[in-house]
Amino acid sequence: MEQLDAVVVGAGVIGLAIAARLSRQLEDVLVIDKNSHFGAETSSRNSEVIHAGIYYPQHSLKAKLCIEGKQALYRYCDLRGVAYQRLGKLIVATSQAQEASLEAVMTKAAANGVTDLVRQSTGQLCSFSSELNASAALLSPSTGIIDSHNYMQSLLAEIESHGGCFVPNTGFIAADPDDKGFIVHLDIDGERLKVRTRYLINSAGLYSTQVASGIQGVQSKHIPRLYWCKGHYFSYSGKKPFSKLVYPVPEANVKGLGIHGTLDMGGQLKFGPDTQYLSETQHPDYHVSSALKPKFFEAIKQYFPNIDINKLQPSYAGIRPKLQGANESFKDFQIQSQADHSINGLVNLHGIESPGLTASLAIAGYVAASLGLTS
User: Fold this and answer.
1) Cis, peptide link before residue 273, omega less than 30° from 0
2) CA neighbor of 71 nearest in space, from 113, 108, 9, 11
3) How far is 223 from 211, CA to CA, in rounded Å?
4) What is the Cα–Cα distance from 372 to 375, expressed in whole angstroms?
5) pTM flag (> 0.90)
6) How far apart are alpha carbons 317 and 285 in whole angstroms?
7) Could you tell me where the beta strands, DSSP code E, fall in 281-325?
8) What whole-number distance in Å separates Cα of residue 294 and Cα of residue 370?
9) How large a percentage of the chain has pLDDT more than 90?
10) How far apart are CA 53 and CA 197, in angstroms?
11) CA-based Rg of the chain, rounded to a whole angstrom?
12) Cα 236 vs. chain centroid, distance in angstroms?
């Protein structure tokens, strides 16, 4: 039976970041994924935004790890030549009521240590875009965009440079802890295989609770309910009306951050995501129906009144692993270590949705520290 130092289940951006971090101190790190390539699910189907850490409750893991991760991610990109742009984000108000909400955003951001938000006058907003409908706005200069595929490729290259390995088409079946770590049962293209590992990291994203259920000794009370929440994106053709990301003010009756405008590294303008909770019996479905266009049009025209509905086209969709249901309040990341479930060497990560991409390197450091691997 092959002896490994660490097995990471799930080769999304979180799993790759964790494996890269562990590979700096451990010789034999294996990353597995049931798909044929890395980042095939949530990690490749998002807005690719580097978030500032504005909206999350103070002292939450999402706030802490987002802010730490943002700074680490910009440094990493500079060091390893990963493409990104620090475009900045405008949080726009279109009414007096929303202007009052901007103050609440400013207060929450400051409490989290995000102190670089700048109030924008109507004159300043016109300099960014003559197409923007906003009576007031906040500028978040540290918000950016990243080529997430390039980033994941860089993480994988780092893993391999330290002797680690990524094996696709490999499903996790079960794991049995013992006094030396874990015996992990795998399915590699239909062939059953067992490996022994000192550390086991469950970073399976949409399937993290299923993986946790297959680890002997993990009690049901430590396996939360996970909700799949689909988000659709529409692209916009023609001349770009904005030079920065544009987000509406968060509203209490709107799930998520509202349908916002973002740019990718190729300069493509896209709008999204919305939020659509899937039933527990549904399989992943990434289809974007053109029937959603009127809903998107009505939301976008609040801040982009001259939008041409004919230039709005279905683009792609992603599915987020949420811990909060459709009518529930904020739920934080769950990163469970021995202090939680009493199993030495095991870390289960649940509900790692936005700002997971931004926080990925900070999450990796948090996991390493929970295993006693500090450097």
Assistant:
1) yes
2) 113
3) 10
4) 9
5) yes
6) 8
7) 312-322
8) 47
9) 88
10) 35
11) 21
12) 23
